[in-house]
Design goal:
Elements (H helix, E strand, L loop, with lengths): L2 H18 L1 H10 L4 H22 L10 H19 L1 H6 L5 H12 L15 H16 L1 H8 L8 H7 L12 H25 L4 H12 L17 H14 L3 H8 L4 H5 L1 H24 L4 H16 L14 H13 L12 H19 L8 E2 L2 E2 L2 H26 L5 H12 L20 H15 L3 H4 L10
Antiparallel strand pairs: 1-2
Amino acid sequence: MKAKPIFYTMGAFLFILGLTMLIPLACALFYGEADGWSFLMSIGITSGTGGVLYLTFRQRSQRIVLSHREGFLIVSAGWILAAFFGGLPYWIHGTLPSLTDAYFETISGFTTTGATVINKIEGLPHGILLWRSMTQWLGGMGIIILSVAVLPFLGVGGRQLFKAEVPGPLKDKLEPRIAETARSLWMVYVIITIVGFIFLLFGGMSVFDAVNHIFCTMATGGFSTKDTSVAWFNSAYIEGVLVVFMIIAGMNFTLHYKLLTGDFKTFGRDSEARFFLGTILVATLLITLDLRLNLVADLARAFRYAIFQVSSIITTTGFTTENFAKWPAFSQIVLLLLMFVGGSAGSTGGAIKCVRILLVLKQGYRELYRLIHPHAVVQVKLGQETIPPDVMKNVLGFFVLYLCIAIVATLAMSSLGLDMITAFASVATTLGNVGPGLGLYHPATTYSEAPAVGKWILSFCMLAGRLEIYTVLVLLTPEFWKK
């Protein structure tokens, strides 16, 4: 690997990251609150560091082409550094005096996990709240994707960054050039965000609350400006709007792009979309029935609770209207399983992803069929497309690695004195980028009381989950660092 392209690219990335803090700085100045200085200092440190790296390691004579190993390293390092520098406003302002807590909050934001260590959200300055939501919105489509859209102008090839960042086993290019693809994705992302913002305004939300909540909805992140999350608004209309846009954000953005360009047939033929929507429907009906029989007297209210929480969990958003830790065990188990399922590939959601679940189910059926017809040649298909064996190996390998990380991290958390439910749920919700869990860290509490070592373990889970396991774990193999 070549050091110069890595430092040069990271310098450009940090410089851009610092510039994004100008928005919460402007917000702080507008409201006349004291957090403006924290953003001003953070911009200077972040963009200053990035500028020094960019100017020191830039190469004028030729266009920089990144290898696949350099792409993996830049993406992983980019998220790690984003969490460090992005946490500076919290630390400088004093919102989170501990660097561990500041890092945890920021990595939770950029990975769109939504796990928080802040106990009193409503008392925070507007600039801090906006930056908190912006970390999720930027992380939702991927800071690296944003950089890929901009870095070509700086002479950096983005193909390897795109391959390392875009989630899912099947990466669907929309345009001939990677930079054009990234810009197309961001265009769709911004358009849907604006539409969602307008709908929330119609529901009576203030401009500030609407901006923050649509940012975190499109990112499937779940940070809120209220201590009780969406429950604070007590509005069926707002919950309905958020359900629709959480589901939109949990679907493959390639489908949204094609819909916007007039291709309506692709959506109906997409197997993953049907599986995703079908899972939401079945889980909602099951939980509605369970709540109606065991907790809620009103069927309509049971359905309202169920559809919102199912949509929030499967898309890994993490908004809450009810403390589901108090729900019947059956409903809790269904939600826990949805934490592992996640949204569609190519969405802003986390976890395993519906396409992988669907492919594993098809592979399982294929093996059962071959037991009955041992000489039959049966191929795994997704719609009309035959899935190559190397993709299936990638999917099965992902499953194994995902479960291994979940098991090891759960053991590590339990060794810190946490009970089994808390340890397992905290890992499931951070590895799946969901946010609220069960046990001690349920929707009505935060992770502020978690052990410091536990916060770093969960931070690793968030990063690994957001970057699809392979991108992070490949850095831990000795072969990666060999020439």
